[in-house]
Structure formats: C-alpha cells, structure tokens
Design goal:
Shape of chain B: elongated
CATH superfamily of the largest domain in chain B: DnaJ domain
Radius of gyration of chain A: 17 Å
CATH class of chain A: Mainly Alpha
Strand content of chain A: 5-15%
CATH architecture of the largest domain in chain B: Orthogonal Bundle
Helix content of chain A: 55-70%
Distance between the termini of chain B: 70 Å
Shape of chain A: globular
CATH architecture of chain A: Orthogonal Bundle
Largest sheet of chain A: 2 strands, antiparallel
Number of helices of chain A: 5
Largest sheet of chain B: 4 strands, mixed
Order of helices and strands of chain A: EEHEHHEHH
Strand order of the largest sheet of chain B: 6-7-11-10
Distance between the termini of chain A: 41 Å
Oligomer: heterodimer
Number of strands of chain B: 11
Helix content of chain B: 25-40%
Largest interface: A-B, 38 and 49 residues
CATH class of the largest domain in chain B: Mainly Alpha
Number of strands of chain A: 4
Structural class of chain A: alpha+beta
C-alpha cells in the first residue's frame, strides 16, 4: 500500500464561503444545464437572481442536486418526488437535532 | 470467494416474477438508500441489494445465475464452473445502468466480462467529455469546542489507485485539514483538487468533508445555538444566585433570577457557535435535589412546607 502525507490544507465551507454560477454548478454535479433547470423548477435548488445567465447558487446546492439525482436514479422517483423527499428529510434532521437532548 | 444468494438478499422466492423482483427492490432501496436511511450498515446493504437486483432484473443474467443450480448456500466457498457461461452473451448496456465498481468479487467472477466491455465504453466516453477526476467524500469528526476555536484534524483516507501495470491497489494518504472556526454540524468543507485524479491530463476532483460533531456529555447543538442543562440547588432557584456555568469557550458566571422554575431557559447572547451572526448559548435550569437526608435537612424542609403555602398541581385542577 502506498502512503502519502501532505501539509496542512485549508478548505472552504461550502455552506458559507462558496457560490456557484449555473455553469459551475453543472460542472460540480456533472449534469447538463437542462437537468439543473428541471430541479430549479421543482424548487430543489433556488438560484439568486432572475436571469439564468446571472444565476448564483449557494454552495450547498451541490449536495441537494446530487442527493436529488441519486434519489431519482435509485428509487425511481421523479424530480417532484425527490423534492418532497429532500424537504421531508430536512425536516426530520431538524427534529432529530431538537429532540437530541431528550433522547439521552 | 463466497457464494452469494441473490434471492435471499432480496428476500424473494427463486421463482419470483420480474415484477415481484422489481417491487422487492424498490422497497429495499427505499429502506437502505444511504441518503434516506438511518439503518446501521445502510450503505453496505444498499450495495448488496443493488448487486442482487443487477443480476435478477436482467433475464439474461438471471438465467445464467440460475444455471449454477439451487444447491449453493450463501457464504459457501465458490468457484465458477469452467465454461459455465458458455452460450450467454451479456449485453452490458440497456439493463445495466448501475455502477459496477462497488460489486463483489463473486459478481465480478460471474459477470465481469460483460461489465468490462460496458465499462470500457463508458470509460472512453467519460475520458472524452469529462477528463476531470471524481469528487470524493469523507466525514470529519470534531468536538463542539473545535467549532469555537478552529482546529486541525489529521485524516487518513483510503482509496484505490492503479499501479504501474494498471492493476488496482489500495493506497492510503493522510491529510492535515484546518477546520475553520464557526463551522456547524452537517456543513461541508471543500478541498479543491484533493479528490480523485483526473484522466488524460484532466484536473483532479474535489474532496468534500462533512462535519460531524462528536456527541458531548453536556452540550447539544441546534444549528448555531448550543444548549446546556445546568443543575441548580432549590434555594439558588428560589432566591436567585450567581453560579459558575461551563461553556465551550470557558466557564462563565451566570446570574440565576430569583424564583426560577425547572426548565427555565437563560439565553447567553452570542455565546453559541461563532459566526456572523454568532449563535446563542441557552442554559436550561434543572432543579437538583440535595442527597442529604439527615434529620436536620428533613426538619428544614418541613419548616419550609409549613411556612410556604403551595400547591404545585393547582393548574391540573387537583
């Protein structure tokens, strides 16, 4: 097994420091723009700005898009179904965090 | 290599119809999908189910698999009989959209050929259009305190790479990563260019680290806000007091207002996880009973009982 050690790395926090244009989001998610449009239409990701050429997405959009695409592919749901699943999952995560204190 | 009973994995009978297999798959996929499931080992189970479905949903592969016979048991030592797949031509495409890279040796030994062809085609297409390397994902576990001060974490990641002869081998690398101050549970740190290597001179992918807080015995976190249960003596709650309270940034003196009940929340503004704006720290009071059961202690409680007229259950109508 080969081993490699690297020096100290500093990254960016996706949710705070990173914004994407439509082209950058497509590249990061390896998706054609049409498919990202569909996800925008379903409200899975919400761009800032009106004109698609000037759309800016928050960094976390990468994760929502990838999750949605995996759900569509693996569970056979459509974009609207994936949107619903993502919203419900988010709500469950929030509730889990809230009840965290009561569980232990 | 161990034999895999794909029918058992999917929980279907050997004579299940293609529709029954599809229904079983959908159900199991929903149960174990790593994006949805909280089941332990969800990812492993999801891969097993995906592999089983890859074979059983495809009439060609299923027929070939069935040829092995009914006498094999899951986990039994297995070698494919020589020429077992003669007369079968696996088309690879069409039925096989799954990513075969995570499938077992057992699958590889049976269907490897067909997949190698399909994979080669896919590979070429990828090389032409996306020369960039894969993005990779890992988790980084930190303490709540690390989010207050920032920290450095050393992570050892394993990945597969090709050696000089093009054979895959396991490689390990250690990264020292700066965890920035103010990071929150579930956020992702992107390390550009630290993912999979690119093909044909393409750029490397990115590495995404998902931040997870280790469960803390005293604090719990909700977004930017941090909660602490603080035990107080009955007289501290009754009379008010200034007490020491721990916070992830160090102990503070906290003023308890007189007449505080159990569960009262005191907000320490801006003492949650740092950021713009910073979160708040909520101290939730818990009235603790002294363990002292001496006669003197009991006498003191009795005196309180006779002095203070109080029905704590008046609100319940009793």
């Amino acid at each position: 097994m080969s081993k490699q050690t690297r020096s100290l790395l500093t990254g960016e926090v996706l949710e705070e420091d990173v914004e994407f244009t439509l082209a950058q989001l497509c590249r990061a998610c390896r998706l054609p723009a049409e498919q990202v449009y569909t996800l925008v239409e379903e409200g899975i990701v919400e761009p800032m700005g009106r004109d698609p050429a000037r759309w800016r997405f928050r960094g976390v959009a990468v994760h929502r898009v990838r999750r949605a695409v995996r759900l569509e592919r693996d569970l056979g749901v459509n974009a609207a179904g994936a949107a619903l699943v993502l919203d419900l999952l988010e709500e469950i995560e929030t509730l889990r965090a809230r009840t965290g204190r009561l569980r232990d | 290599m161990r034999f895999k009973d794909y029918y058992e994995v999917m929980g279907v009978a050997r004579d299940a119809t293609q529709d029954e297999i599809k229904r079983a798959y959908r159900k199991l996929a929903r149960k174990y999908h790593p994006d949805v499931s909280k089941e332990p080992q969800a990812e492993v189970r999801f891969k097993e189910v995906g592999e089983a479905y890859e074979v059983l949903k495809d009439p060609e592969k299923r027929t070939a698999y069935d040829q092995l016979g009914k006498d094999w048991k899951a986990g039994q030592e297995f070698r494919p009989p020589p020429g077992w797949d003669q007369g079968f031509e696996f088309r690879g495409g069409g039925f096989t959209e799954a990513d075969a890279s995570g499938f077992s040796d057992f699958f590889e030994s049976l269907f490897g050929r067909g997949f190698a062809r399909a994979g080669a085609r896919g590979g070429k297409a990828r090389a032409r259009f996306h020369a960039q390397g894969e993005d990779t994902h890992a988790k980084v576990l930190i303490e709540i305190e690390d989010a207050y001060h920032g920290a450095t974490r050393s992570l050892t990641l394993r990945h597969t790479e090709l050696d000089g002869d093009g054979r895959p081998r396991l490689a390990e690398r250690t990264l020292n990563v700066r965890v920035p101050k103010g990071v929150r549970q579930g956020q992702h740190i992107r390390l550009a260019g630290q993912g999979g290597a690119g093909m044909g001179g393409g750029q490397s992918g990115d590495l995404y680290l998902e931040v997870e807080f280790r469960a803390h015995p005293h604090y719990y976190v909700d977004g930017r806000d941090v909660y602490l249960d603080l035990p107080v003596a009955p007289w501290e709650a009754a009379l008010g007091a200034t007490v020491k309270a721990p916070t992830p940034a160090g102990a503070v003196d906290l003023k308890i207002p007189a007449g505080s009940g159990s569960g009262r929340k005191l907000r320490l503004k801006g003492r949650g996880i740092p950021g713009t704006p910073p979160g708040d720290l909520y101290v939730v009071l818990q009235i603790a009973m002294p363990p002292d059961q001496s006669d003197a202690a009991k006498a003191a409680w009795r005196e309180l009982e006779s002095t203070v007229k109080f029905n704590p259950r008046a609100g319940l109508g009793v």
